[in-house]
Amino acid sequence: MTDNRIATEELHRFSNDPVRAAGRLHWDILRLLHELKQGLLKAKHKGEKLRSLAIDSWAVDFGFLGRGGELLGNPYHYRDAHTDGVMNKLFAEIPASEVFGRTGIQFLQFNSIFQLYAMAKAGNPILEQAEHFLMIPDLLRYFLTGEKHNEFTNATTTQLYNPISGGRHKDNGAAGGWDKGNRAAGGWDAELIRRIGAKPSWFGHVAQPGSVVGTLSASVMEELGVDAIPVLAVAEHDTGSAVAAVPALNRSFAYLSCGTWSLIGTEVDSPVIDERTQRFNFTNEGGAYGTYRLLKNIMGLWILNECRREWERAGLLYSFPELVKMAGEAAPFAAFIDPDDDLFLPPGDMPSRIRQYCDRTGQRAPDGPGAIVRCILESLALKYRYALGLTETLSGQRFDGLHMVGGGIHNTLLCRWTANAIGSPYGQGRTKEARSAI
Q1: Looking at the predicted structure, is the pLDDT value of residue 112 above 90?
Q2: What is the per-residue burial (b if ≥16 Cβ within 10 Å, else e) of 353-362?
């Protein structure tokens, strides 16, 4: 920190590629652990004293530890097909309204609750040996420290955490949620966990962001030649950390965390769990400092990334700036897609799926990369406008603009078209401002 400002410097960047093996899609969890260690080594060699360590990641995915802390298999990746069709099967046993009423979390087929239910129904042998449920940052922290904790913001995304009453079991205690003023402390919903075929004993202490949850273990210190570094729980759902970093000047603000997924919403003091929130498929995820993030998940730039990968496989090598330039030159408002259509969830040939969607909806399909990219970006901007309006309705707030953060802010067209779509004055050519706070 210099001049009362925090400066950041990237020391080590690495890809995070899911691995398909034996028909399943997995996180390459041990590769990620290896790369984290390489980052620590680079920081050490830079000569700076390492004062703390924290990890955030995508939500919902998890791994299991068995007896003696052994990792049981490679964690499934949320885009694996084992949850296809599972939501309706679970709702035949537990009504959707009850699941939402207990958790306040929107329904996405890859939520942890559906992954666990699918594993239980398939008789997955991992569940017979499981002793501890840890989400991806929790699991990586365990490998580094030997300590087992579930962090609050990520725990809420499982759709197994009750933010109101909790249904706590003996491992939770008062640490199950944030108890401040009139806010009810929640915790793991033991009854819901049992009803999907899981065990409440797998789910342990819930740590709040900002708490120290261990230090590097002796074996890791010896391996890397570093001292005992405190390891902290932060808002370990990456969206929670992104929202905590939004440079909003007012307590009431709207945000759009834009990347592979787009997450648009606002912070609220207490979860908003009612019929309207369920109908519009909004969610109440835990945030930093005892807040909740009332938001909607939108498919995001995943669709563009998959198009680019498909073109690369065909030998067409486009950089993202080239694709954005071609999109700007394409005809406007030629076709639209719903980014959240189930067609666009799995990996694969996304240009063909966009054409399929247009055929199904009676539109002329975009032809060529520039037109396809324009279709994607315009569709996202319009979906953002729709979701922002719903956020205002559900939260009872009005917002002057939209704070846009994340990797997607480098896409100047998306920022400009989003500003235009929501009617922000920053849409009038003020690109730099639009990227940081539309």
Answers
A1: yes
A2: bbbebbeeee
* Selected catalytic residue, list 238, 338, 342, 349: 238
**Percentage of the residues of the chain whose pLDDT score is greater than 70:** 92
Q: For residue 283, what are the CA distances in angstroms to 108, 159, 167, 347, 391?
A: 10, 10, 20, 24, 11
Question: Cβ-count burial of 275 within 10 angstroms (0-12 exposed, 13-18 middle, 19+ buried)?
Answer: exposed
- How do residues 409-435 score in pLDDT, each as one tens digit? 999 999 999 999 998 654 333 333 333
Q: Indicate the residue type of 82.
A: H
Checking if the pLDDT of 337 tops 80, the result is: yes
- Is 338 among the catalytic positions? no
Q: Which two tokens stand for residue 153?
A: 């913001």
Token pair recorded at residue 239: 């969206």
Q: What is the 3-state secondary structure (H, E, C) of 35-89?
A: HHHHHHHHHHHCCCCCCCECCCECCCCEEEECHHHCECCCCECCCCHHHCCHHHH
**What's the pLDDT at 251?**
83
pTM of the entire predicted model? 0.84
